[in-house]
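Re: [ENG-882] Designed sequences occasionally contain unexpected residues at chain ends

Forwarding the minimal case from QA. Structure tokens:
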């Protein structure tokens, strides 16, 4: 097998790798770049999309699936293999991405800036739906000269790491490995011993904070704020994090640890993802499945409401009394969360809880660093609400979990991590006698 690492080298977005055997070309993920490297998304692929024979997709996050429609726009005609849950979830994720690209192009045109229209559209999404082929976990499948097995990665519902065998050799592609402390998802499986493991390294230099502490703090902040009649504002990613937050709010209510208050999910994408959750119940932990079996929606606190229209969203600004509002975008880069921050940050009785990563230089970081006044949608907004950062909700394996998952491996190629994270993980693995490479863009590895 010949492996070429053509994405996510020295960064955590743009996952994409090419495997070749006997002239058969198979892609592992084809994700979008996010943040600083976004303009790479419209660049030429370092391979001919029309000459590809198959695409395997590890999970539904945009940085792993976001450029698959572009493959179709550039001549790919083959299948996309993934789990049934992933194939369901990629649909709203990619539709939302397309909507944002169109809005961005419109904004640029209005400002008189050069605006490139999106390079793919509904037609390519339709092709992906048509050509998507579900593969169950643990069921080996022959794809060209490869024998491919998907196993549970515990990172999202339906997320997988992928074992590939050909010509007597084997490779494991980690995709994104989940955090073992997630209670909504099954723990990641371990890979079989392989000739080469292509592994993510997002948290390669950091162990996670103890999760129980995070949960205790979360329940305390919710109880205190709701008891004093305040609003709790939670910016969240639409896929997995928002539902996980709802899972704990429901549990805290059931345990009597917090008062029952209205919970608003104000994010159209989160709403669509939540609708899919009940259709993919097999992909969750035993606890979640058992709640579903007993007729309880594990992701529905007692007074849950999904807002539909923009008007309904705006009416939340006038809402009196205690409530929890979950809205996107999770990184405060746009979306309905900005309205809520503008209206609720100035009141002392409210609380803002960060449950996800905030990028350097962004609004979230400025609020966390203690700025007393921030600019939101052209307004100066005083920050008087209490601000909390709960670091324990990460969806990725921490350093120690990565080392544990890679414990049997002799040859490891590291991708999907900043360089500090990859260097640190590489040092730890080498100390154990593993042969480790820190992949460069376009580098070729023989398996
Ligand atoms: Zn991911």
């Amino acid at each position: 097998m010949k492996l070429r690492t053509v994405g996510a080298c020295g960064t955590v977005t743009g996952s994409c790798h090419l495997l070749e055997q006997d002239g058969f070309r198979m892609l592992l993920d084809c994700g979008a770049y996010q943040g600083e490297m976004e303009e790479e998304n419209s660049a030429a692929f370092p391979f001919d999309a029309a000459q590809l024979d198959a695409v395997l997709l590890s999970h539904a996050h945009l940085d792993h699936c976001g450029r698959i429609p572009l493959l179709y726009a550039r001549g790919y005609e083959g299948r996309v293999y993934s789990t049934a849950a992933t194939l369901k979830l990629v649909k709203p994720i990619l539709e939302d991405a397309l909507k944002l690209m169109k809005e961005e192009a419109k904004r640029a045109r209005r400002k008189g800036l050069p605006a490139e229209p999106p390079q793919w559209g509904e037609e390519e999404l339709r092709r992906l739906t048509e050509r998507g082929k579900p593969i169950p976990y643990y069921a080996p499948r022959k794809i060209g000269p490869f024998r491919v097995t998907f196993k549970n990665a515990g990172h999202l519902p339906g997320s997988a790491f992928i074992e590939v065998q050909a010509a007597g050799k084997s490779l494991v592609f980690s995709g994104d490995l989940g955090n073992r402390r997630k209670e909504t998802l099954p723990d990641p499986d371990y890979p079989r011993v392989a000739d080469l493991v292509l592994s993510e390294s997002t948290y390669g230099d950091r162990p996670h904070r103890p999760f129980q502490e995070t949960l205790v703090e979360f329940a305390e902040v919710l109880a205190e704020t709701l008891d004093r009649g305040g609003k709790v504002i939670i910016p969240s990613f639409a896929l997995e994090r928002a539902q996980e937050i709802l899972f704990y709010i429901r549990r805290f209510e059931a345990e009597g640890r917090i008062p029952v208050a209205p919970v608003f999910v104000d994010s159209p994408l989160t709403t669509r993802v939540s609708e899919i959750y009940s259709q993919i119940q097999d992909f969750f932990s035993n606890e979640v499945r058992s709640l579903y079996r007993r007729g309880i929606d594990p992701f529905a606190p007692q007074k849950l409401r999904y807002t539909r229209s923009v008007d309904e969203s705006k009416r939340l600004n006038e809402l009196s009394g205690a409530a929890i509002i979950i809205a996107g975008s999770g990184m405060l880069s746009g979306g309905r969360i900005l309205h809520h921050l503008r209206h609720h940050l100035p009141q002392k009785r409210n609380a803002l809880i960060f449950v996800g990563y905030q990028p350097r230089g962004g609004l979230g970081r400025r609020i966390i660093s203690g700025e007393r006044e921030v600019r939101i949608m052209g307004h100066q907004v005083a920050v008087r609400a209490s601000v909390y950062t709960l670091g324990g909700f990460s969806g990725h394996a921490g350093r120690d979990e990565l080392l544990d998952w890679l414990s049997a491996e002799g040859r490891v190629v590291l991708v999907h991590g900043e360089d500090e994270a990859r260097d640190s993980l590489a040092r730890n693995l080498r100390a154990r006698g593993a042969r480790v490479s820190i992949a460069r863009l376009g580098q070729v590895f023989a398996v």
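QA comment: On inspection the terminal residues look reasonable. The chain has a mean pLDDT of 95. Proposing we downgrade this to a documentation issue.
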